[in-house]
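From: lab user (bench 3)
To: helpdesk
Subject: output format question, protein + zinc ion

Hello, I'm new to running complex predictions and I'm not sure whether the block I got back is the full result or only part of it. Here's what I submitted:
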Amino acid sequence: MTDIKALVARETDRLSTIRQALHQIPETGFAEKKTARFVAEQLYGIPDIQVTTGIAKTGVLGLLKTGRPGKTLLIRADMDALPISEETGLAFSSTHDNAMHACGHDGNMAMVLTTARILSTIKDRFSGNVTFMFQPAEEWPGGAKPMIEAGILQDPPVDFAVACHLWPGLPSGTLGVKSGVLMAATTVFEIEIIGRGGHGAMPHQCVDALDTAAQVVNALQRVVSRKLNPLTPSVVTVGSLHAGSAPNTIPGKAVLTGTTRTYDKSVWHNFHNILEPVVKGVCDAMGASYKFTLTPGYPPLENDPDMVDIMKKTMLKVVGQDRVMKPESTMGGEDMAFVFEKTKGCYFFIGSGYDGCAPLHNATFDFDETLLQLGVETQVRFALDLLSDQ
Ligand SMILES: [Zn+2]
Ligand SMILES: [Zn+2]
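Helpdesk reply: Thanks, we reran it on our side. This is the complete output you should expect:
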């Protein structure tokens, strides 16, 4: 029986080639055309994988059936890049304007493609099926939900799901997993404030939308500290505010946008009712009117305790006890949460942090490619641990 580490080591060059090829053609959410074509071509080259393309626009699915009855595991990679101009100076930098794989999704795809290749060669060592999900638009507005709506969890029915992310918050070369809520539920909101514009020297004739907006921003900072249970971590961030065009003019309109985060589902469902009265109160006091829209994003991402127990044992085999970490939860969001609502799920981190490393979504973000081997080995072993003794 060939050792898994040896099987992964054999794929080292191909893993790096795939990652670098994908890194050069980054595409943002639902525009992953070249990326999806590349992924599908790779999957077509792997024996025994059934390939479906064009799911939820650009999503791709690979299905590996062992032919023996058993459970089905889904392994997910996200395909989208960010609208960032790359500044890494790497030889294989982005060839697309204002698009960059700054969140490591190039690595995620390379890992899952390689996991598929290895599992296909050892499919006599487990039962059931493995579904490889390549989803669009993880960053925004979310490709997992439309792929679920297209039926990807149904035929065969998916029992378990796993996904991972390179994580600068953990030391490079470690693996991190924990049960319970790992990532936050998200929303985005927009507030349009309508006042009455006029001369900067005559404020009494106007309703100052900019000043009202400034007060709204301040008042929203009180929501987490004064209106929510301090034992329920939450965030309200105003990320943009646009108003005015001249120094001597009072603007009649201001638009602000923001995001909320929480681990609590009831707070998540209730955020509209929590925020709107604050906006209304300030606008009423200043004589302005407003339009408030809040759009739910992703649910909280919750790891199944049984899956995490199995994963911890898997990780011990990959990196040894002193390199298996319990990560802090993050207020980041992840639309894999929609899959985890329907299956038993396990999301894990591959530590990629080192002194001075750039954070995710930074124009100089990069990672040590040897880490991808850890991710592949973990996914392959996890599939075996989960599916070989059903
Ligand atoms: Zn990201
Ligand atoms: Zn990401």
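A quick orientation on your result: DSSP finds ten helices and 16 strands in the chain. Let us know if anything else is unclear.
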